[in-house]
Amino acid sequence: MRAQLERLLQSGHFRNSRRYPALLRYVVQQTLEGQAASLKERTLGVEVFGRAADYDTAADPVVRVTIAEIRKRIAQYYQETAHTSEVRIELNPGSYVPEFSLPRTSLFDAVLLPPPEEDVAVSTPVDAVVPRLKPAARRQRTTLRKPLLWWWLGSAAAAIMLCAFVVLGPFGHRSAMDRLWSPIFAEDGPVTFCLPISIKKNGVGQAWTTEEAIAHAIDIAGPAVPNDGSFLDHQTLGENVVYSDVLAMMKLSSVVEQQHRPVRVRLNVGSNLNDFREGPTVFIGGLDNQWTLRLLKPLRFHFAGSDSDEYYIQDARTPADKRWSVRLLDKMTVVNHDYALIARVHSEALGRVTMLVAGIGMSGTASAGEFLADPAQVRDLERRIGYKNRNHDFEAVLETDVDDGIAGAARIVALDVH
After folding, report:
1. The pTM of the whole model exceeds 0.85
2. How far is the C-alpha of 298 from the C-alpha of 390, rounded, in Å?
3. Sequence-distant (≥ 6) Cβ neighbours of residue 169 within 8 angstroms
4. Distance between CA 187 and CA 183 in Å, rounded?
5. Over the range 22-44, which residues count as b (16 or more CB within 10 Å of their CB) and which as e?
6. Burial of 381 (0-12, 13-18, 19+ CB in 10 A)
7. What are 339's strand-pairing partners?
8. Pick from 418, 350, 321: which is nearest to 61 by CA?
């Protein structure tokens, strides 16, 4: 296990970092030394990152954020063909204690071996997981006659296939929809949908630019309406949400409900980072949701523009290109296309995997929500991402036709996997 740890840390996923190898090495060594019970968030913050003994883990999520990134990098390491036959070190969601296992393909490899010419002894790898016996007794217990050995291997293979059929279904594997959402559902806690209200109004009628919305993402702690506002203020500016955002949430909540996961709804205004650290979050809405804008800003594709000119999805590699643009001030009958971004990202600020569903206009958001809930569309998305990269973060630009404000089916026009 220690040798495997060194292989992991010398890989390209870890060797250029200081923080990730330090935490992974610490939790593995403590576990191998029988100290797994001490692996708590506060202990790791103190021992690995030098935090004070009474530091606020809610305000400083360094351990949770680092562990989430380590899980991602370990998954990427074992997805590479060169490492599939290695001993596995894994960190399951919700735990800081690593788990160790032999290669998952070892039993199938044994079943596919050619028939032996002579009596066969159990191979060396078994010695690593069963107690050693005295030489004479060990030889007597591990030597099997050829018919008995092959009967046992055949029975084991049949049992494995039966279990796979029962657990995974008649097709023997999870669907593309399951694989797309599995990083979200692997996180503990309720699934939160963050819906926007009108972020363009701050309660006194002043407009915010996109940059200002991002800058105020942390500072917004109260409702959009002043405490002394009238009931009409609350009716018009308080907690109303856009119909297309609700449609997107309804489509996606049907996916969540199939996993029997609790769902809750938060508004973008009046919520803070701690609200989104309690479980995985799906952020809905683009230009009117400052959280979405903030999470998209460092990615390759993100929103840019203004009301007076046009809004567009900007590609960081070709920032002057405005081909995915919409003028929100144009008449509805003139706008015949809308664009949206969908993304699955590991957020260091939240320490969680998040899903982003955001259109330039309302039609784009509704169409993007429908896209992520459609098995056929998700299969096409996975095909473009590549099966080997299925656990990686991704970001896609969607285009949809619009007829009198009604969106059609979305299609992928650009994709970035990282």
Report:
1. no
2. 21
3. none
4. 7
5. ebbbbbbebbeeeeeeebeeebb
6. buried
7. 399
8. 350
